[in-house]
């Protein structure tokens, strides 16, 4: 392995500069929600509610490493649109989206949602 390859290998999973200071908190504030699917519907003559979901939350660590973890639809931020009725009675829902939220350097909140 050449010296250049070794250096690239070292920085692949983290920032290539020290971002552990407070001035980089905006990086750690970024959260990515991947709603791969969230379905809810009444099934059968008994009216039972069927639910299935696959939701993941991606976050950045102290040095910029990114990691995914399982999440619940109820952990989505209030700004997310599409699963407000999740778990209530049993309205029909079929939803997929990616939702990214962040706090800027001054603490202002921002987000973007893409449904697919």
In which range does the helix fraction lie?
A: 10-25%
* Silhouette: elongated
Order of helical and strand elements: HHEEEEE
The portion of residues forming beta strands comes to 35-45%
Number of strands: 5
The largest sheet is: 5 strands, antiparallel
Rounded mean pLDDT is: 87
Q: Helix count?
A: 2
Oligomer category: single chain
Low-confidence stretches: none
Strand order of the largest sheet: 3-2-1-4-5
Radius of gyration in whole Å, from Cα? 19 Å
Describe the structure.
The chain is mainly β and 116 residues long. The protein has two helices and five strands. The protein has helices spanning 3-11, 25-28; strands at residues 31-43, 48-60, 66-71, 93-103, 109-115. The chain has a five-stranded antiparallel sheet with strand order 3-2-1-4-5. Strand 2 (48-60) and strand 3 form a beta hairpin. The N and C termini lie far apart (41 Å). The model has no long low-confidence stretch (mean pLDDT 87).
Strands, helices and their partners?
Elements: H1 3-11, H2 25-28, E1 31-43, E2 48-60, E3 66-71, E4 93-103, E5 109-115
Antiparallel strand pairs: 1-2, 1-4, 2-3, 4-5
What labels would you give this structure?
mainly beta, 11% helix, elongated, five-stranded antiparallel sheet, 116 residues
């Amino acid at each position: 392995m050449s010296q250049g390859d070794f250096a690239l290998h070292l920085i692949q999973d983290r920032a290539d500069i020290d971002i552990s200071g407070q001035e980089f908190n905006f990086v750690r504030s970024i959260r990515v929600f991947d709603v791969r699917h969230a379905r809810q519907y009444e099934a059968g003559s008994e009216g039972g509610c069927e639910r299935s979901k696959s939701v993941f939350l991606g976050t950045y660590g102290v040095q910029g490493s990114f990691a995914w973890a399982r999440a619940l639809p109820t952990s989505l931020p209030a700004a997310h649109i599409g699963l407000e009725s999740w778990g209530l009675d049993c309205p029909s829902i079929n939803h997929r989206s990616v939702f990214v939220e962040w706090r800027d350097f001054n603490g202002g909140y921002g987000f973007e949602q893409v449904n697919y």
